[in-house]
Inverse folding.
């Protein structure tokens, strides 16, 4: 799942080397925390959140096929350039 998100996000951003994805397991749900460069946040979110919501939909469909619950969260980066 993590690899799929990384592959899709790398095709959208300008700085693919700054992508960080971590997995957190809480109860029966896996939370994927995605962090990208500040300048790429708008690209990942898209107009009205269309891009990030589409990535979330893909992840949820794949997770459902595997009988899992997965949530994708986009985290704000702390570095302000």
């Amino acid at each position: 799942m993590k690899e799929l998100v990384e592959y899709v996000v790398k095709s959208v951003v300008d700085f693919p080397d700054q992508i960080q994805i971590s997995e957190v397991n809480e109860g029966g749900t896996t939370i994927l925390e995605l962090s990208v460069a500040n300048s790429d946040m708008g690209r990942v979110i898209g107009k009205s959140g269309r891009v990030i919501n589409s990535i979330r939909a893909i992840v949820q469909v794949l997770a459902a096929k595997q009988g899992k619950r997965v949530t994708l969260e986009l985290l704000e980066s702390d570095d302000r350039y």
In short: The chain has one domain: 1-14+35-81. Helices lie at 2-10, 41-45, 50-65. The mean pLDDT is 92. Residues 1-14+35-81 form one domain.
